[in-house]
Give the backbone structure.
Amino acid sequence: MNNSKNVAMAFLIGGVIGAGVALLFAPASGIETRRRIKDGVEDAGDWARDRYQDARYKASESGGRVRQLVTDKKEDLQAAFDAGREAYQKGKERLIRGS
């Protein structure tokens, strides 16, 4: 899955570079070409900010799941520890009473 993300990212970056080169060689005035480049850079920046926000959200969401998993496991371990301590105490009491 990570490999497909790398391929998609390379494709998008190549597309942006290709669009920039096409703008530079397109028959348009300097002002029009600069405006197109500026718009393209702004669009690329918006796209990058969106991907960054998506990544932050997913990381935060994953962190929440990890915290919940740790909390659940901690509660399971505490319950097992408490059960073991109780069994130890009962066994100890039986030994004392049996002596």
Notes: The chain has a mean pLDDT of 81. Helices lie at 2-25, 30-98. Residues 51 and 84 are 49 Å apart (CA to CA).
